[in-house]
Amino acid sequence: MNDPVLVINCGSSSIKYALIAADPDAPRLAGLAERLGGSDARLKGLDSRGEPFERALAGEDHVRALEAILDGLEGQRPGAVGHRIVHGGERFTRATLIDDAVVAAIEETAALAPLHNPANLQGVAATRQLFPELPQVAVFDTAFHQTLPPRAYRYALPEALYRDHGIRRYGFHGTSHAYVSTRADALSSLEGGGWLTAHLGNGCSTAAVRGGRSLDTSMGLTPLEGLVMGTRSGDVDPGLHSHLARRLGWPLERIDEVLNRGSGLLGLSGLTHDMRELEAAAEEGHAGAQLAIEVFCYRVAKSLAALSCALPRLDGIVFTGGIGENSPLVREKVVDHLPHFGLGLDRAANAATVRGREGRIDGRHPAAPRLWVIPTDEEGRIAEETRQLLGGTAP
Ligand code: ADP
């Protein structure tokens, strides 16, 4: 299939899109329709010359927003649509061609991702309505982690909760961990290297990957488990919920809201969820910002150390996501917390590898694990998986 793939990442009030040609070096048309359903809905993005554009979309719904996106594709027609779907449960272990039965199965999985899957399905419904003739492919955030062994994915809970209700660890950011670990293999001329990957953006997760298979990851049943994130707490004592309910009388909704939207970097700093702003504030002496950065970096390192148990050999660590790609400070602090890994950070290379640059930031000692910064490309990976499914070969 040589036609471009339209990659859609649909939220409840937004549609992120990218039109990705078969030639990986071809320019991408990409953008975002946001605040859909509101009076200030808008479409913004980059055209094929890389020029930014933005225009109002008065109160558009998803179908009309997609029509506006199509109008902006400069006459190019996609040959297939690849959808990011957050939760595939245990049913979906790889990219899957969408039909009515697949939509029904994704609906069933919505119990595990009540905020995300229904929104993703709105995008599927809208694109199926607009392009009934095009193949549509679902690419799941969870699928890459379906190779976790039971010792990594089971919680120590009564078996019936797993068997009857699917309560287990699933992991997320799968397309990103898959992309950067594959890329690390290629850049290092290794086949089946053992990598620890750290996706650090607003959402953050780590993974242990060997031979292209995810062996463990920091997120669990939901994307709340694991690292400190922009506004999410990551790991807390499981006794916290009952403590807050009993001592403060908080209802479940409030606990959920605080852990998902009022915690993490924002909660710790009392200032912002944004790492760039925190770094600036910390520099000026803001104690909350300094603490937030310290806790964040220590927890990333601790998670990487824990996940190293899944690998027989550590070939290297890969940093990605907005923070992983752009913050030499965070990378340095994380590496400094892992002296027993024998990592040698090249501080000049670390400082120079920012703003979308791919680069190796270790001192290239032959015995030391590599340190890579690899800008993630979730859209590119979704397009590739879509193309390969339709072309009949596995990625
Ligand atoms: P999302 O998970 O929403 O896709 P991103 O991957 O874009 O988010 O990551 C957003 C985070 O990256 C924010 O905390 C932002 O401050 C951080 N970031 C972006 N650029 C820099 C920078 N130059 N220095 C430090 N942090 C940065």
TrEMBL record:
Names of the cofactor(s): Mg(2+); Mn(2+)
Keyword Ligase listed: no
GO biological process, one term: acetyl-CoA biosynthetic process
Active-site residues (renumbered): D141 (proton donor/acceptor)
A GO cellular component entry from the record: cytosol
Binding site for Mg(2+): N9, E378
Gene3D superfamilies (alphabetical): 3.30.420.40
Main location: cytoplasm
Assembly: Homodimer.
Family per similarity comment: Belongs to the acetokinase family.
The protein's name: Acetate kinase
Gene (name only): ackA
